[in-house]
């Protein structure tokens, strides 16, 4: 029997966004983040890599990571986020490891969010570009950190014994780029903030003069798919109860 879509919590105090690369959150979720911060929700970004394998020019690899960190901090500020944390894993080479689960669990216990936003660990066959291996690895690692690691005081006991980080239970997870998306956020009124965040990623989008049209068209299709009025724009997620 098909279950009805989960209704997300009406409001939460803290959200943690865990993504693989600088710009991932901005392409898929920056409009949603802008609506949350405008409502007074504290949002923290945890970016697993520095994005050092990205870019479209001859920027030396040892310079790309710091550049992309700076771009992500500027993009975060454009949508009201001031706390951006980088885990420093190698771009393009992420694997599902206990170390990665521990490091994401650490941030969950530090931030103590009611909601976590990450990427879906499922491959999206209709949009293969959404299923970058790093994205899927971070999605699966984050879900494993949410359950059971972060809430279990006996998982990674060094987090409690050495760092004083008590266990924490996340109530819900929002999965972006999911083939099971069941919830849309109307972001029409914060379009300017989303595009401003995207344009902060100069190393990633400056080569593409059509990025605004592409992203806006994508969100228009999403809004139509979820039955929003004509002319509206939306971002979509699969909402999972994890309490």
UniProtKB/TrEMBL annotation:
Gene3D superfamilies: LmbE-like (3.40.50.10320). The keyword Metal-binding does not apply. Transmembrane segments: none annotated. InterPro entries: GlcNAc_PI_deacetylase-related, LmbE-like_dom_sf. Keywords: Zinc. GO terms for biological process: glycoside metabolic process. This is N-acetylglucosaminyl deacetylase, LmbE family. GO terms for molecular function: hydrolase activity, acting on carbon-nitrogen (but not peptide) bonds, in linear amides. It comes from Blastococcus haudaquaticus. It holds the Pfam family PIG-L.
